[in-house]
């Protein structure tokens, strides 16, 4: 067998969708948990190339079993390991923000880079990272979800006004706006803590009477999107929706977003979430087709 797709049970559905798109076999990784919480993965029959689907939301419970599975595959003779991680964790802490903190990005880069020959991910948090391959020390392919999210948002008559929540989102917001032939603008943001932000807009009149769609790569606490929704409504927006790539927010955050005035949130399926409407299987398969053919 030249190549196959593998995943743990919690990600099997999305991994099988990828395998189907690639017309490749799928193999489930068994994970046994000892009474003390240790994990023991068992991998199936090896192939020359193994594509490991493991999106790294809630990463602490996933990284150690993933590393152990890599050891098992190498011992079984697998020549090429490719990590398919639509969401790549620990990328936000890309510098020491306060004394005593680590640079988490570099740590996750070391853990994964020495185990995988290639990493494929979608819209990683690269705001201050110029060369992700250098951080991981291996081949890294970063994919844009702009088209997938643009299709999920939809035009529905008059193109919406797309709004990025901060200056770092400017390029990405513009990319989606170009695909939708829609206007866009970017807010100014000051972060006051993990769950508190302050936003402002230079052209409040531009929002009046418009269908506004907030776009962001990650929604975790929901604080930024909630504050942006309140600001948009104060500026006279007709309605406020959101499109995010990586939906990491919990039920309480979802309720807070609804209370802030958001009427609709769409996301890709990089992380399992009730808002998932935009599957990434085709996007990932296009990037991985060469692994199957080689």
From TrEMBL:
Coiled-coil ranges (or none): none
Domain of life: Bacteria
Gene Ontology molecular function terms on file: magnesium ion binding; ribose phosphate diphosphokinase activity
GO cellular component terms given for this protein: cytoplasm; ribose phosphate diphosphokinase complex
Domain Phosphoribosyltransferase: 151-266
Top-tier EC class: transferase
Alphabetized UniProt keyword annotations: Nucleotide biosynthesis, Transferase
Annotated InterPro entries: Pribosyltran_N, PRTase-like, PRTase_dom, Rib-P_diPkinase
SMART domains in alphabetical order: Pribosyltran_N
Domain Ribose-phosphate pyrophosphokinase N-terminal positions: 13-111
Record EC number: 2.7.6.1
Matching SUPFAM superfamilies: PRTase-like (SSF53271)
Pfam families referenced in this protein's UniProt entry, alphabetically: Pribosyltran, Pribosyltran_N
UniProt record, GO biological process: 5-phosphoribose 1-diphosphate biosynthetic process; purine nucleotide biosynthetic process
Family classification: Belongs to the ribose-phosphate pyrophosphokinase family.
NCBIfam families, A to Z: PRK07199.1 (NF005537), ribP_PPkin (TIGR01251)
The protein's name: Ribose-phosphate diphosphokinase
